[in-house]
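Table S2 (text version). Query chain:
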Amino acid sequence: MALYDTSIRRPVATAMTFLAIIVVGSVSFYYLPVDLLPEIEYPRVTVYTNYPNVGPEEIEKIITDPVANAVSGVPNVERITSSSDEGGSRVNLEFAQGTDLNAAANDVRAALDRIRDDLPVEAEPPGIWKFDPNSQEIVSIAVESSRSMESLTRLLERDIGRRFEQIPGVGTLSIDGGIYRQIRVNIERDRLRAYDLSAAQVQQAIGQSNVALPGGNVKEGLKDLYVRTQGEYESLQQIRQTVVTTAGGNPVQVQDVADVVDGYEDLQEVSELGGVPVVQLEIQKQSGANTVSV
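Corresponding structure-token output:
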């Protein structure tokens, strides 16, 4: 009753109180984050290892099994599943609810470091991906153009993509169905045998010639001049003329045992819209960002 009496005796104060509540509620509603799904924590970590041009059975023996055995002792692991495909291995770890995913990822990383020397040298270092349901793309854009697919991919990646990255709340961008330039060195086996060479020697010669090394610094009065040796390739002809070895006093160049061509990376996936090839740009928001405002 005291509240009712006070409200009746002081109508102005009562009206101002309700007005303040309405104003605060309206402002709070404007800044209330909107998302498709509530924030969900699903403690899951995936260890992925790429080893190109190797079959699934070999991948399972030399990568998947050692990785699975190494991470099986990580605390709070409830379930481990794995898959071995051509050129890649995936080991999925599911942790108990309430597990700190960052700490779990550090434990997995430490376990992988202990077996790194047991994995093939040619394989890429194992990577760790923490599953986050809130990191799914919020916008997917399919782009079709009269440009070449390579030019369109470069335009989306270097120009349009960078503009999207400047939007507040945008996290990461990914491109699917794009085509990327790749310089290919196609070794001819018969020509290689004629010079008694191996593919590893050709690879080593190219790798050693395509480097940029620091050359120290030179003092000139109050100035420090930094010297850098530019040794990276700038043309296909430079690659072709790289010396692999000598035979009979004559240099054996890359072009003597291989064909160097300006080509493209192997397509891993193709994106189409209505049967027409497109390049797909997917946008993910930052954690906690408002999906609608982004």
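Notes on Table S2: The first strand starts at residue 44 and ends at 50. The chain has three domains: 44-133, 136-180+267-285, 182-264.
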